[in-house]
Amino acid sequence: MEYRYLGRTGVKVSEFSLGGASFGSRASEEESIKIIDEALDFGINLIDTSNIYGKGESERIIGKALKNKRQEVVLATKFGAEAADQVNQSGASRRWIRTAVEQSLSRLQTDYIDLYQLHLPFEFVAYEEILLTLNDLVKEGKIQHIGTSNHLGWQIVQAQNISDRYGFQRLASEQTPYSIINRKMEFELAEVAQRYDLSLFVYSPLSGGLLTGKYKAGEAARSDSRAAVLKGYADALDPQSADNKHKFEVIDQLQQLANESGMSLANMAIAFTQAHPAVTSTLWGPRTFEQLKSYMSGAQTRLGTDVLDAIDDIVPPGKRIDDKEQTWMPHWMNTERRRRHVY
Fold this sequence. Notes:
This protein is globular. Strand 5, helix 3 and strand 6 form a beta-alpha-beta unit. The protein is built from 12 helices and 10 strands. By secondary structure, it is of the alpha/beta class. The strands form 2 sheets. An 8-stranded parallel beta barrel has the order 3-4-5-6-7-8-9-10, surrounded by 5 helices. A two-stranded antiparallel ribbon has the order 1-2.
């Protein structure tokens, strides 16, 4: 396992990290703890979660699993994407951030969070207010470092400039989707991260399962696959949809390349994310222990120049094959923000 610096903090994190999105929802507590223990034994030292995963269950399970191992782990969680029914129980206000961090600390059974991340950009609070609050929490020792998730390059630049102007804690990381068929990160964000001293944590390296090798263009998805289980809700995964024809043709080309290179498509896809020099760590989000073991089996895979060049020929750098992979929609894309008058 290779370990790399988290921004300019001096803290080192593993090249692969464990994401807890399935813990307490798609993975039972017992299975989740088994996954966590195995990941730590493998050398992973960064575990990432959010206060919304499993409605807080992910944090609770991770806290239980790490009760006697806290010093071994760089623990990261997120706030700001809550869908609360009550007023002032979500978002990025000073009031809510202070409430959210206390809730996370309690569920995680820890005195401090190593990396506290704003899960999504938040329209209605100025970055000055958010950064001031996070800076206060750093001074109080409740969090060590701060980061973002799903942000655009200009937002990160704005936040870093505000921190520099007022002497606030600077962002140490950004978490963003990145895969062979979703290379949009390369167009701008990778360069911003390197120029502004951020680590990039990349998630969805298999594009929601599309790059596992189990889907074929025009063929029905297996009954136990995510595409079948979520049919009607996750149309981007449906290999029989006419809208997805080009995407699955591209995936077939990638599968052929992986076969010719003597590796699985999944291993090639994960290794691809590690080939970019701006990437600090690739997040694994296993739902089962077997999935974790499959990730681990390909962890040493490295792609040569010939394979990377061939991937570039199939999916050009900076290109996202399917815009349905957009993980969030910025507020300025709302109808009332795109039209001068709405009748």
